[in-house]
């Protein structure tokens, strides 16, 4: 499988360059409502801050994110492919050709610039994807797609049919039978009304390739918890339900390191949900999360974009 990953990545680059979708390549598609915590989930996977943040709709173009694991054995090869790189982690956009980004703040700014170039500087969306590769020893070999958050009411210069535009964009990606759907829902909302799970059910009625992620566990009303949700007693999800804790806005403003945030998450889960904190149903380690998804999906005979 390791030898297949570079081939799939190159195919994705080629198809994105020429605008062809003749082959439906495997990938993990992340969907959820605005401010549901999608960005935090993706950043925890990478272990770095690199996504734009703000109020309202921030992700306004699909972001195809290829994570490439760089081990000690293949680090020299990766440096040879991309030129001399004096960094342990770096990024590379398809639209900037061979330019290497070693500062993740620059990666964030380039996403903002490229989004505004195609979508305008207000709140409009665009279906043309931004393609980013991140090379790091901390990641698994995964391909993920981050999509604009599901919304109902147009704001700024958004068209009146913004809801249907985003819906069509989401359905376009999650309808790919080789995609794994990561349906993100905040814990402080009713999972039975989850738009992400509703979208997933429309294209995956048997739930063979849908995994739920419940974010913001620490923001639930006092006296309540998510144990029934996480155990699937409210809405069953065949591949499982993962609970996570997001960094607060204050943590982000104070530039809390994601590794510290993951430690805080682990401590919270052990304290609040000790009975299940160490089970795969709820796992602060995102690497173990996707390894579990690969194992589980293979049991159902489904091909997903988890290449570990």
Describe the overall structure:
- This protein is an alpha/beta fold.
- It has helices at residues 4-18, 38-46, 75-82, 104-119, 162-174, 195-203, 227-230, 249-253, 258-272, 286-299; strands at 27-32, 63-69, 90-93, 130-136, 141-146, 179-186, 210-215, 241-243, 306-307.
- Helix 7 (227-230) links the parallel strand 7 (210-215) and strand 8.
Q: Look at the helices and sheets and give the structural class.
A: alpha/beta
Distance between the termini: 8 Å
| Chain-averaged pLDDT | 80
The radius of gyration is 19 Å
Number of strands: 9
Q: What sequence of helices (H) and strands (E) makes up the elements?
A: HEHEHEHEEHEHEHEHHHE
Low-confidence stretches: 280-285, 299-308
Shape: globular
- Oligomeric state of the chains? single chain
Report the sheet with the most strands, covering strand number, pairing sense and barrel closure. Answer: 9 strands, mixed
Query: What share of the residues lie within helices?
Result: 25-40%
Strand content: 15-25%
State the helix count: 10
């Amino acid at each position: 499988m390791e030898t297949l990953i570079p081939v799939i990545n190159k195919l994705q680059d080629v198809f994105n360059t020429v605008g062809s979708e003749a082959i439906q390549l495997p990938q993990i598609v992340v969907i959820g409502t605005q401010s549901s915590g999608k960005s935090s989930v993706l950043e925890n996977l990478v272990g770095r801050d690199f996504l734009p943040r703000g109020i309202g709709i921030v992700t306004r173009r699909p972001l195809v994110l290829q994570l490439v694991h760089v081990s000690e054995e293949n680090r020299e090869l990766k440096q040879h492919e991309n030129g001399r790189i004096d960094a342990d982690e770096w990024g590379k956009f398809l639209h900037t050709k061979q330019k290497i980004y070693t500062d993740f703040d620059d990666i964030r700014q380039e996403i903002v610039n490229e989004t505004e170039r195609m979508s305008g500087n207000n709140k409009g969306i665009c279906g043309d994807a931004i393609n980013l590769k991140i090379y790091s020893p901390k990641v698994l070999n995964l391909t993920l797609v981050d999509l604009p958050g599901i919304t109902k009411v147009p704001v700024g210069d958004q068209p009146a049919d913004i809801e249907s535009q985003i819906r069509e964009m989401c359905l376009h990606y999650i309808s790919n039978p080789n995609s794994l759907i990561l349906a993100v829902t905040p814990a402080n909302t009713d999972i039975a009304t989850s738009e992400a799970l509703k979208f997933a059910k429309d294209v995956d009625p048997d739930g063979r390739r849908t995994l739920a992620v419940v974010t913001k566990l620490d923001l639930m009303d006092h006296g309540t918890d998510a144990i029934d949700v996480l155990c699937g007693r409210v809405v069953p999800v065949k591949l499982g339900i993962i609970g996570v804790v997001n960094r607060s806005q204050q943590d982000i403003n104070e530039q809390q390191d994601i590794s510290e945030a993951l430690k805080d998450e682990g401590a919270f889960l052990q304290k609040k949900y000790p009975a299940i904190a160490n089970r795969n149903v709820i796992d602060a380690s995102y690497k173990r999360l996707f390894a579990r998804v690969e194992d589980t999906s293979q049991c159902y005979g489904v091909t997903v974009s988890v290449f570990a």
